[in-house]
């Protein structure tokens, strides 16, 4: 219920914020790390950011191949008010999770470029030679970010992967 209410608040806020247009000339970049791991091992992929300045909120989905990777959790939260409660896990068996984050003080949060925002962890199920992309997606959760001026920010992504050795 808490996540549902938070999602509704975020969606309503984004509707209002979208009336002000796209603000930042420098795009926020979300990056997933490229990793190599052995079958049966645990691997955590860093999700990092560039140009993450004065941000109030962001949302998106993260996808992977569930035949190769089995989701085990998220950890290493570096944003204020970011916790495992911000992640929707209904799709993990299908290979996706969603993120809805809001900076509850409404002041805007900063992370230095290259900083890890959080880690997503998996158990490697695939055979040697297989791989899974770790991809940012706007399905099922639309891709959006809002700055402290209540403006939509441009977002670019760099997808990652896990290769099984």
Automatic annotation (TrEMBL):
<protein>
    <submittedName>
        <fullName>Cellulosome anchoring protein cohesin region</fullName>
    </submittedName>
</protein>
<dbReference type="Pfam" id="PF00963">
    <property type="entry name" value="Cohesin"/>
</dbReference>
<dbReference type="GO" id="GO:0000272">
    <property type="term" value="P:polysaccharide catabolic process"/>
</dbReference>
<dbReference type="GO" id="GO:0030246">
    <property type="term" value="F:carbohydrate binding"/>
</dbReference>
<dbReference type="InterPro" id="IPR008965">
    <property type="entry name" value="CBM2/CBM3_carb-bd_dom_sf"/>
</dbReference>
<keyword id="KW-0732">Signal</keyword>
<feature type="domain" description="Cohesin">
    <location>
        <begin position="29"/>
        <end position="164"/>
    </location>
</feature>
<feature type="signal peptide">
    <location>
        <begin position="1"/>
        <end position="23"/>
    </location>
</feature>
<dbReference type="InterPro" id="IPR002102">
    <property type="entry name" value="Cohesin_dom"/>
</dbReference>
């Amino acid at each position: 219920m808490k996540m549902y209410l938070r999602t509704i608040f975020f969606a309503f806020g984004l509707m209002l914020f979208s009336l002000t247009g796209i603000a930042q000339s420098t795009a926020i970049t979300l990056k997933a790390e490229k990793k190599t791991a052995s079958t049966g091992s645990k691997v955590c992929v860093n999700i990092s950011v560039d140009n993450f300045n004065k941000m109030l909120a962001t949302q998106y989905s993260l996808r992977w191949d569930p035949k190769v990777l089995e989701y085990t959790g998220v950890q290493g939260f570096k944003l204020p008010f970011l916790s495992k409660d911000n992640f929707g896990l209904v799709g993990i068996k299908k290979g996706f999770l969603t993120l809805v984050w809001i900076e509850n003080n409404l002041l805007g949060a900063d992370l230095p470029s290259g900083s890890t925002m959080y880690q997503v962890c998996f158990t490697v199920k695939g055979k040697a030679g297989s791989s899974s992309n770790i991809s940012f997606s706007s399905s099922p959760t639309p891709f959006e970010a809002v700055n402290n001026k209540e403006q939509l920010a441009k977002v670019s992504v760099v997808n990652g992967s896990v290769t099984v050795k």
